[in-house]
Amino acid sequence: MSNFAFNNPAFQQQDPRNVATYPGAPQAAQGAQTASFQQAGVDATVNAQLEGMYAAPPAGAIETDRMSVEDTVWKTAGLFGILLVTAAIAWVFTLGGVAAPERDPYNQFAPNMGPWIVGALGGFVLAMIISFTSRKKVRPALIFAYAAFEGLFIGGISAFFEVLWPGIVMQATLATVSVVAVTLALFASGKIRASAKMTKIFMIAMGGYLVFSLLNVILMWTGVFGQGQAFGMLSQVKIAGIPLGLIIGVLVVFMAAYSLVLDFDQIQQGVRNGAPRKYGWLGAFGIMVTVVWLYVEILRMIAIARSN
Question: Angle at which helices 280-307 and 69-95 pack, to 10 degrees?
């Protein structure tokens, strides 16, 4: 499993011989098997009721109180709406510390780092809480708060990069939307699917990337790359004249795209399992985690390319 947000039985393939273990799960094979034996004894009144049910319009997520793809899409859109609002607020506060050009002839950049730091710390803490407690209870309020904190982080870091490299935020946004759209189109058409072998390779690659990122941060903190080198090895080390950050960045984009495939696949599995409607919030949360990761990686890639 790629995204820790889906570490819940509701999104895992269930053995039809067993009863699902997540809260609100529908009864499994034993009840269905018993019902099949009793079908022969259904009287005319029950048959008439069944005919009326089949003639009625299909029940939606609200009527059935079960998770659906459409309901999860709306929940995802709502979370990104919260993120955009708080990102706009963080953008304004971050740029509030930038001196006007006529009063700053040396173009000294003094941003307000508060929103960025608060958003990063708050988002990380909430993500851990949501992930480790979702097996017992889904708390939409925490997921709303996570979206708000992620907006502060995204707005702050985007404003910072935009001042250094004008136009970079639009470039990163268009690239992120393009990757998500292409991945979704390929998944919906059935041309790309998650597989056990590919998922294993993905997990190994993810572990290696996390170790490399930690090492890079340590080397930056210890001053190995000197002052003002914000990206460490990613910008200083080059292979055939190409910064290492661009090479690794391309691989990370493919990793994030495959993570989206896993997210979509696990949401479909939750729908097939008949998971309660509230689990759609976990699906939306998982997609947001992946998309934010993708955006930040693309933003860094473009910054490395433009700084070189």
Answer: 40
Say how many C-beta atoms besides its own lie within 10 A of residue 38's C-beta. Answer: 8
Cβ distance 232 to 219 under 8 Å? yes
Residue 292 and residue 146: Cα distance in Å, rounded?
Answer: 12
Strand partners, 242: 239
Rg (C-alpha) for the chain, rounded Å, is 24
Identify the band that residue 86 occupies on the pLDDT scale cut at 50, 70 and 90: very high
Residues 6+ apart with CB under 8 A from 137: 23
Give the separation between CA 8 and CA 21, rounded to whole angstroms. Answer: 10
Q: Tokens at residue 1, please?
A: 């499993």
144-159 pLDDT, tens per residue?
999 999 999 999 999 9
With pLDDT > 90 as the criterion, what percentage of the chain qualifies? 38
- Helix 280-307 / helix 140-164 crossing angle, nearest 10 deg: 10
| 93-103: pLDDT as tens digits | 888 755 544 44
| 135 band by pLDDT with thresholds 50, 70 and 90 | confident
| For range 60-77, the mean pLDDT | 80
pLDDT for res 106: 44
Phi, psi of 259 (to 5 degrees): -60, -40
What is the pLDDT, as a whole number, of residue 254?
93
Query: 177-197 pLDDT, tens per residue?
Result: 999 999 999 998 988 888 888
Residue that is written with structure tokens 């004008």 in the block: 166
**First-to-last C-alpha distance (Å) of the chain:** 36
Burial of residue 229 (number of CB atoms within 10 Å: 0-12, 13-18, 19+): middle
Kindly state the helix (H) or strand (E) to which residue 166 belongs, with its residue range.
none
* Dihedral class, residue 232 (left if φ above 0, else alpha if ψ from -120 to 50, else beta): left
* Kind and range of the H or E run holding 242: strand 242-243
Contacts of residue 10, defined as CB under 8 A and 6 or more positions apart, other chains included, come to 20, 22, 25, 67, 270, 273, 275, 276, 279, 282
